[in-house]
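Loading example: each entry is read as two labelled lines plus one structure line.
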Amino acid sequence: MGELEFRRRIYEDPDSRDEDLLQEAESNESSQKFWQETRALNEKIKSAVDIPVPSDLADKLILQSTFQDLARQKKRSRVHLAMAASVAFVIGMTFTMWSPTQQDLGHAAIAHMNHSPAEFTQASEVSIEEVNDKLSSMGAQLIGDIGRIYSANFCRLDFVKSLHVVVDTDDGPVSVFFTPYDKDSALPERFSEDSYTGEGFRSQRANVMVVGDKNTDITEITKKVKASMNRA
Amino acid sequence: MFKRNKNDKVTVLSDVMKKQQRYESLVRALHTDIYRYAYWLIGNKAIAEDVVQETFLRAWRSLDSLKDEKAAKSWLITILRRENARRFERKQFDLVDIDDVHVEDHSASLEASHTNDEVRKHISKLDEEYRDPLMLQVIFGFTGEEIAEQLSLNKNTVNTRLFRARSQLKESLEQPVLRGQANG
């Protein structure tokens, strides 16, 4: 091995234990001297490179992993909370969405009667044209006389838009509720509650409920309305 | 679902403890070398510490991907170098000239020759392409092959750079006064 080659390899790695390097150093005094000098230099480099390390660094590094864990657990519990919130939300929504259908239209109509008896007293005659005008918004129509109409006002039976028409009969005023046709909504044929009684039926374009006082015979008027709707 | 969760929790807990133990031994064994390497890569102690923290945080997150403990050194170095590169992408103003850092370090040892500080000054003045393989060899005891692999370089290139790094250091350390006068 030439001296240049030896020096190059010692510079590349002064701590080398390669046999050929050791042999060269043994056989050549200047090579050995060079190696010793270079090792000394290398020790200086090593010593200089070993800068002081912050004493708390290891603890910091370990601690931060613990924080990571805590943060992840927190995240997980946050996810659980979010899931619980979602479930609660869905349940809440389901109840609000279902309640109008769970409570059938007939009972909703009676509830409406209980809460708005004022519509009876503010009675004044309403023309059938006016009623039909309003009914046309649900695509329904009344053909033929159903009696004297006191009032025709839109109201909501729970969440269902409906036209509340008050008709005079021999037994007194009777309410007729027209709601948009819906084959799925609960529409009992007969229903009664407290002081009211009612009948429900589906026409082609509307769900209809006739509600009157418990003492009132509403079969006649119901027939009338049914006939009037069916012809439409 | 809840029943399974309970069982999972036990396994997860012991997994977490195992992971924590593994991580702790990794930190204890390597944080000193990693910090020093970071310092020589970055040239600023505070930033080096930040990058080391970020490095170990990433290591913690992906500890499962480290299959062989023997590969831990080069794995951490790779993460560190990537974190350092990200630092440059993120904030250009974080750039610190290693020479500036050194002026502070140097001031304490103006009269001493070949003290650690003196040698540090000269190491920091090396080109990064020479300093980097030298640090990998001196700090981690990497062989030429290992350095070549770590830096994605040819082994001969690494050897040449190691040679140049040492000869430059030797040269500059032999003429400290001259250089000082020339600079002053």
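The helical segments of chain A are 3-12, 19-27, 29-49, 57-102, 105-115, 118-121, 128-135, 219-230.
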